[in-house]
Amino acid sequence: MSEHKPRSWYPETLAIHAGRRPDPTTGAVMAPLHLSTTYLRDGAAQPVAAYSYSRDGHPNSHTVEATLAALDAGADACVFSSGVAAAQAVFETLPRGSRVVATADSYYGTRRQLDDLAARGWLEPEYVDTSDTDAVARALERPTALVWIETPSNPMLRIADLAAIAKLTAPRGTRLACDGTLATPIGQQPLALGADLVVHSATKYLGGHSDLLGGVVVSRVADDAAAAIRERRSVAGAMLAPFDCWLLGRSLATLPWRVRAQCDSALRIATALEGHPALRAVIYPGLAAHPGHARACVQMRTFGAMISLRVAAGRTAALAMTGHLELFATATSLGGVESLVEHRASIEGPNTATPDDLLRLSVGLEHPDDLLADLHAALEAVA
Ligand SMILES: *Cc1c(COP(=O)(O)O)cnc(C)c1O
């Protein structure tokens, strides 16, 4: 077994073999955990191997980065201590004063970062509905350094047309980044659609068990911009720790199967709940009624495992419903094996555009019929 990865491997195989090989010194089949922060140098003060100090890179980051790059078909992957640290590195490597066009309903933490950088004079963000390609084209009439697309967006699950937007950014020399956290590399391949970068919060599906915080930037080309992102990680001290890299690698081995099962369950649940009298809307890209459905069919391999429900009786009933659910824990985050429910408007605060009757579900790996029975019982309790 070598680190060579033929392009013909399926994601299931890449997830287990890409970048991984038995440890040559011990013969350990699975990657050993290297906790050392410092690495030997020779008489000429050169590192004897590829490592010197773990803030800049260590064997466990090296291994998991190779797997992550393969899964997104990128040339370079750089792990970070969180998803927001990964996004911050992308934003901070832009020249001062750069204009950034970003998805209006992106993850609220991303908007918080962009607004913070704007307040300190670093960036000039403009938020647009990126599911409207014409709106993106209009925003690009002014010189723009970066377009930041989150698709599906969170929690409205809007779908942006990545290939069409890449046709707008490429001739202008504008970089295109996609936050692919909700879709995962299994559901969507933004680099193949023309994006320059894909960013994931590894805290979600990639980690998959709600027990590690991490992020990754995967670059289509190993260019100066990719090197600058890596350099930014060292400058900011935003490296992912060895144990978290090891856990992430362990989780990636099952990513394709977990994600597909979770997406299948979500489609089944969304389909069963559509038209329920206690619900004003079931928002899920896999439903034909979803405005992004046709685009999702073209650009996604699965429709994701997030569902947003709008409760007909409004905010109070939505909040009450969370208390009636037995299997969906009321907690923030998504992408774990366990199902979660969250009233996003409460979390996002008074300025949020998220409707206050909306509950966001993260569908886990429990049996979908148990989850559905739980949702039916809670809906009945608040109807
Ligand atoms: C959670 C999340 C982030 C931030 O990642 P952290 O790992 O929590 O820092 C960014 N984008 C999306 C879509 C997310 O869900």
Verbal overview:
This protein is of the alpha/beta class and 383 residues long. It is built from 14 helices and 12 strands. Strands 1-7-6-5-4-2-3 form a 7-stranded mixed beta sheet, sandwiched between helices. A 5-stranded mixed beta sheet has the order 8-9-12-11-10. Bound molecules: pyridoxal-5'-phosphate. Pyridoxal-5'-phosphate binds next to α3 and α4.
Tally the helices: what do you get?
A: 14
Characterize the largest beta sheet: strand count, sense, and whether it forms a barrel.
7 strands, mixed
Please tally the β strands and state the result. Answer: 12
* Cα-based radius of gyration, to the nearest Å: 21 Å
How much helicity do the residues have? 25-40%
The helix/strand class is alpha/beta
How far apart lie the N and C ends?
Answer: 58 Å
Shape: globular
Look at the structure and give the mean pLDDT. Answer: 96
List the bound ligands: pyridoxal-5'-phosphate
Q: How do the strands of the widest beta sheet line up side by side?
A: 1-7-6-5-4-2-3
- Note poorly predicted spans: 1-6
β-strand amount: 15-25%
Order of helices and strands: HHEHEHEHEHEHEEHHHEHEHEEHEH
